[in-house]
Each structure stands twice: as structure tokens, then as C-alpha cells.
Amino acid sequence: MMYPDPSSVSRVCSIGAGPIGGGWTAHFLARGYDVTAYVHDMAEREALMAIVETAWVSLTALGLAKGASLDRLTVTDDLDEAVKGADFIQESAPERPEIKQALYERLGQIVPEHVVIASSTSGMTMTEIAARCPSPARCVIGHPFNPPYLLPLVEIIGGERTDPAAVDWAVAFYEQAGKAPLKMKKEVPGFVATRLQEALWREALHMVANGEATPEDIDIALKNGPAPRMVVQGQCMAFHVACGEGGMATNLDQFGPALKWPWTRLEAPELTQELRDRMVEGCNAMAGTRHFTEMAAERDAKIVAVLKAVRGDA
Amino acid sequence: MMYPDPSSVSRVCSIGAGPIGGGWTAHFLARGYDVTAYVHDMAEREALMAIVETAWVSLTALGLAKGASLDRLTVTDDLDEAVKGADFIQESAPERPEIKQALYERLGQIVPEHVVIASSTSGMTMTEIAARCPSPARCVIGHPFNPPYLLPLVEIIGGERTDPAAVDWAVAFYEQAGKAPLKMKKEVPGFVATRLQEALWREALHMVANGEATPEDIDIALKNGPAPRMVVQGQCMAFHVACGEGGMATNLDQFGPALKWPWTRLEAPELTQELRDRMVEGCNAMAGTRHFTEMAAERDAKIVAVLKAVRGDA
């Protein structure tokens, strides 16, 4: 199957009137697309519009694409009408297998096969969702992070019957559409971002359960400690740059034994040579030719901007 | 012991020429204090000044206190000279028990007992550090988050022989000095912030070890997903507000079973009624009288500012 150039997409169909579907609708409108929003029942239109209008405030502040307008939104409860002329479909229907499977069976019949269909699902696999779809090759997961109109991440993966070219197309399209796409290496429950967040969250619950911290303590610690750096560098590059000349290699070779310390109730992985090398090589690749002092200065400047933004004088 | 009013502090002694000691020196100078920096050897002066000057760029961008100046720094390798006239001492000596214990033995002799001494230690307890100190009541841990000139968090706890009033004084002083103090409920390895970060870090290492993600994937996921929200709300309030009207109660009552899902390799705590209530009450207390829509709007506005800050147009 030949998929059209991602830059040629002009109309997007967004299925679903909840916070995820509404968030996607607002995002695509803000990026200058024509959007048809499918709602199960026209009674949901008002709720959808409330979400879109709330999101529009932030999207306007972030900067709208040329020609972007709420006037380019059409809302319908007719699925055939909704997908007509759409160059891409973002599906955010309820997270129930029977609903998704029936929907993809129908979409597979009425949507041309060169149109990629992406599901916002956070808990199902595309293999399961597209079980009854007659044209599963173009079906992928495009999982946003809430709220989807604000946070750029989209985690992308296909199912067993997905064409790898459809996955690559989705990555290219989301990039074009102003998102930060992450092509998943494997199906893994929770994807990447939610798994990482969940590890932190479980530790937070342990601390509250043990009387070591209150919820307020947890939030004070995160907002004033790791988070301002994490938003600027992620965690791998944060450690890489913090270790100076030696980078991630120093971090792992010197502090590796600390993985055995009972910090957190999470069992630590074995720090094999292979794991060490993957971490070191990954960080070196991200650093490229930049010296750590250059990266540290860039980090500092951005943390300053983030702190000013958070305290409200940006 | 009566400790002086934290607002009366005018001279701070910062012990240590490394990134932590140097970072503290820069921070206190930026907040308008006179600072005496103790270095073990005058040969370390140059390295210390390099750290202070690097930090000064960021501190200036964040806004200096009235009268703040690098000219108000004195560097000495004479400990008696260093502590003379100091109203507060921040100790960031090497993390070796014999060094810290000898230092606190001497400080306990030469520093008036109403002067609080805080250690930046990340791995020792104050009980251990002050083992040989003749006046341990005023000795506390004041553990910063790296880099200490930028990240506001300071985690505070005493040892077995610490006067609780000295802990409270340190909390009040750090607040006065522009930090975000967190008074620890219990001695816990890794304190609060580093434990939470470590849980996330271990999960990240597991994902890389299993070929589920590269270090770059980890960083893309964090920077574009959880981090922009975490810096604005922490994790407890992020979930509280995301669950709308129902808040944290909905989060735990509805998604509680998800704690048993194999998301992350971290064993989940038992979601007892007590834990549930602590989480819910903690979030309600933080929310105060604010409606969730108000908090969500504030979150969105700040995430917008953070995203603009990170991409460089703040």
C-alpha cells in the first residue's frame, strides 16, 4: 500500500467526544487542519465543544498555525459522513473491546485503505482492536499523553497485522502535525511514559503508606527537585550531563552499586555490561559533538526559564 | 537553646569547594548574604570560583536580592576564620564518615551553640555525622537537589540528638533564603525526591535492558509527557485535577485495581483504606477551596509557559 505524503493531509477525522477525542480535535484544528469530529450522539456536541474551547485558550497561547480556526470544525453523528474526505483518522472511542472492534470492523469497510487510522487506546493492543477489521494493515496505536492538546508525546505502535509502513507514516504525520512521536520498540503495558510515571507513583504511594511523606511532601519534592530538570533534559541526559566529562559511563560505573541500595521498593535490574553500554552509547548519541559544559549551560538557561514560567513571570 | 530570628541571619559560612559547596555559596550570595567559603586548601579556590561564576549567570537571570554581590564573598582555608561571625553554616564536605565526624567534632567546639549547622549529605544520617560533636543539638541535615543554585528543594531532618527546634529553625531559614524546604517525617534512604526519581530511573533501566526503549526514547517520553505537568503540579495534584470533580478519590477508587497490573517492575503497595484516605485528604488540603476547573486552567496556563520556556521563546 502506498500512503500519501503526510504533508498532503488536509482533513482529519477525530472520533470521540470525551477529553481525549476533544483534545485531539482541538489540537488538529490548531495545527490548521479541517477537522470532522464524530460523536456517538449529537447530545454530546456541547460537551465536546466545551473541551475544544477550553483547549483553544492554551493552543492560542502556544501559537496557532496559519489559517487555523474553530470554524473549520464539523461535528456529526453520521460515521460515513465523518470519515468522508478524511486523510487521517484519530479514534478515541470508549475503552471497551466490543465497541472498538465493531468500530474498526465498520471503519475497515468505509475508509479507503491508504488512510491511516490511529487509536488513542491506553490499555488495548492493535491486534485486539483490529481483530474484526477487514483492512488492519493501516491501523496503528497513536497514544497521547493527557491532556492531548497540550502534551506533545504520542506513542506509536502497530498490531500483528499492521503494515510497518503505516507505523512509519504515522510517526511522520504526527511530527508534521506538531507532536513529539515516539515509535515503540515493543508492545509493553503502559507504553514508555506511563510506565515510568507509574514506577514513581507507586513509590509515592509506598511513602505515604509508610508515613514517610504526605501527598503535599511528594508534590513539593517533585516540583522543586527532579521535575524542573526532567522537563528540560529527560532523566538519561540529566545524569549524563551531571556527571561532567565522564557522563553516563561515570554515572553507571561509579554509582552502579547504588542500584542495590534499598532506595525505592522497585527491584533493580542487573547492571550487565550490555545494559551499561546501551545507556552510555545512547547518551553519547544524544550529546553528539556537544561538550558537557555546553549542555550544562543550556540546561541551566532552560531551567531558569522553566522556573520563571512556573512562578508566573515568564 | 534559643535560636535567633532566621531573618536576622546576615553571614553564612559554606564549607566545601565542590559543586554542592560552590552551588550553596553562589545561592547565598545571590540572596544577599555575606558568605565565607571554607576550602580545605587555597588551591581549591579557583575551582570554587568557577562554580560560583557559572551559577551566577543563572542566579542573575532569576533575579538577585537587593545588595547581592560576588564582592561579599570571602574564601579562606582557616576554619576558625571561616566560622567567625557566621549566623548559619552549610557543610558540604566530602561524603566520608571520618572526614565529616572530625569536622563536626571541631565545629562543635568553635561554633556558638545557637548557630545551626546543616549538612548537605545525601548518604549519611545526622546521628552518624554528629557522633563526636560536643554540641549536636543544633546539627541538622539540609540536603539540596543538584544543582543547588538552581533547584529550590532542601530536605531537612535531624539526628537522634538534634533539638527539634533546630530543625524548625532550619526550615524557616531556608524558606527565608529562597529555598523550598521539605521537613522530613522520618529518616529514609534517598530522602523523598531522590527515592521517587530512583524508582523512575530503575524502571527506565529495566526498559533499556529489555529492549523496550532506548535512552533517547526514555528522554523523549519524559520531556514531552509527564515532566511538563509534574513541574507544574507534582504527581498527586496532577492526578487529583485530572480526575475532575472526583479528584484523588476517583483516581484511587476507580483506577486502584490498576496498581496490580504489571506496569513497572515495582511492587505496588496495598491500597488500604488508610492509604486511600491519606491520599485523598492530602490532595483536598492542597486544593483548598479551589474548584478543579480553576486548578486545571491554572495548570494549562503554566504548562503553556513551561513548554514555551523549554522551546526557547519565553
Automatic annotation (TrEMBL), chains A, B:
GO terms of molecular function: NAD+ binding; oxidoreductase activity, acting on the CH-OH group of donors, NAD or NADP as acceptor
SUPFAM superfamilies linked to this entry: 6-phosphogluconate dehydrogenase C-terminal domain-like, NAD(P)-binding Rossmann-fold domains
InterPro entries reported in the protein's UniProt record: 3-OHacyl-CoA_DH_NAD-bd, 3HC_DH_C, 6-PGluconate_DH-like_C_sf, 6PGD_dom2, NAD(P)-bd_dom_sf
Domain 3-hydroxyacyl-CoA dehydrogenase C-terminal, first and last residues per copy: 190-249
Residues annotated as domain 3-hydroxyacyl-CoA dehydrogenase NAD binding: 12-186
Record has Oxidoreductase as a keyword: yes
A GO biological process held by the record: fatty acid metabolic process
Gene3D superfamilies, A to Z: N-(1-d-carboxylethyl)-l-norvaline Dehydrogenase, domain 2 (1.10.1040.10), NAD(P)-binding Rossmann-like Domain (3.40.50.720)
Keywords: Oxidoreductase
Keyword match Oxidoreductase: yes
Domain of life assignment: Bacteria
Protein name listed in UniProt: 3-hydroxybutyryl-CoA dehydrogenase
